[in-house]
Amino acid sequence: MIELIQQYWPNYLYSDGFNYSGLVITLWLLVVSIVLGFGLAVPLAIARASRNPWISRPVWLYTYVFRGTPLYVQLLLCYTGIYSLQYVHTHALLGEFFRSAMNCTLLAFTLNECAYATEIFAGAIKETAYGEIEAALAYGMSKYKLYTRIILPSALRRALPSYSNEVILMLHATTLAFTATVPDILKVARDANSATYMTFQAYGIAAALYATIVFALIWGFRRMETRMLAYLKPQGH
Asked: Cell membrane: present as a keyword of the record (predicted)?
């Protein structure tokens, strides 16, 4: 155990100028996929909630495909499947992009996260109280102001509990990154186990790091919910 900690603990936690630790890589995968997925999901959720089928149906198809297939399969398609296409590996920019394991992993994670977040936000948009919309229209708001000032702020706040669960699930999903040779926490744990045969210790450290990140996420989202959803609590007289 002491040997494993002395030799591999830096690989779990600490980075130098050339190599990043498993913890940094895992957090990078989580943050980038969440930020990009959120940025794409908001406009797609508006389209998904549209009553126009020419707008909502393509988004429904996208979310259906990415929520209906395993993330592991999506990762393999991005990592090995797309690059095997002749046009892709002969194209300068596309070939350079899909040769990178990190790029392929982030692409798969972002598209998957975006699909789930889109459905969460679209459901919250559809559940917006009609009284709020009617009041905004009566006030003379344009459709753009209606969404930016009334619908989206209200929907995103109400979607926060469900979205926080999705973020935690995305953290768990980052464990698939090691299959694309991305050196995340699980990859470091596998390397440590292969070198020392201390299976329980190697994976135990990884489990402790994941649990710590989850507790930090839960604490952060609970603080956000307390602040942003305070208006939904019953008010005393």
From this structure: yes
Where are the chain's structural domains?
2-227
> In whole angstroms, what is the distance from residue 72 CA to residue 81 CA?
12
Residue-wise pLDDT tens digits, 115-124: 999 999 999 9
CB 33 within 8 A of CB 108: no
CA–CA separation, 216 and 229 (whole Å): 20
CA–CA gap between residue 140 and residue 150 (Å, rounded): 13
Structure token pair of residue 87: 């046009």
CATH class of 2-227: mainly alpha
- Produce one character per residue of 1-22: b if its CB has 16 or more CB atoms within 10 Å, e if not: eeebeeebeebbeeeeeeebbb
Q: Six-digit token pair at 135?
A: 């009041």
d(CA 79, CA 180): 7
